[in-house]
Amino acid sequence: MENYIPSGGYLLRNYKCKYKKGDSVYDVLKRAASECGIHIYSRNTEFGVYVSEIGYIEEGKFGATSGWTYYVNGEFPMLSCALYEVKGGDKIVFKYVCS
Questions:
Q1: What is the dihedral sign for C-alpha 78, 8, 66, 38?
Q2: What are the residues facing 63 on neighbouring strands?
Q3: Angle made by CA atoms 66, 68, 72, in degrees to the nearest 5
Q4: Minimal CA–CA distance to 39: which of 54, 17, 59, 57?
Q5: Nearest to 94 by CA among 25, 19, 16
Q6: In DSSP terms, which residues pair with 24 in a beta bridge?
Q7: Per-residue pLDDT of the chain (99 residues; tens, 9 = 90+)
Q8: Is 22 left (phi over 0), alpha (psi -120 to 50) or beta?
Q9: How far is residue 89 from each of residues 5, 16, 56, 77, measured CA to CA in Å?
Q10: pTM of the predicted model as reported, rounded to 2 decimal places
């Protein structure tokens, strides 16, 4: 696992990804990951799509409740990333939270 953690802490920083009208945050994540060769793993849950692994960094590896969260324009939406619709100029950030 530690082999996949970048020294600067970022897997991808300030990457500009094209989006299409109706795209969700998850659509943009998948597109950016594909374009940059970053592995992601997700699963469907009762609340929507849950991203459990990005760049081979898995949920739960750094504490029982550690895992990936996302922010849009600095805000933490309480919604699956597959349900949050992107608008032009949105800044999307996925962060790994340790606990």
A1: positive
A2: 61
A3: 135
A4: 54
A5: 25
A6: 85
A7: 556 677 777 898 889 988 899 999 999 999 999 999 999 999 999 999 999 999 999 999 888 999 999 999 999 999 999 999 999 999 999 999 987
A8: left
A9: 28, 10, 28, 17
A10: 0.90
Q: Which two tokens stand for residue 49?
A: 């799509």
Identity (one letter) of the amino acid at 89?
G
Task: Determine the Cα–Cα distance for residues 47 and 45; give it in Å rounded to an integer.
Answer: 5
Amino acid in position 68 = W
Q: What is the 3-state secondary structure (H, E, C) of 31-98?
A: HHHHHHCCCEEEEEECCEEEEEEECCEECCECECCCEEEEEECCECCCCCCCCCECCCCCCEEEEEEC
* Phi/psi at 77 (5° precision): -70, 140
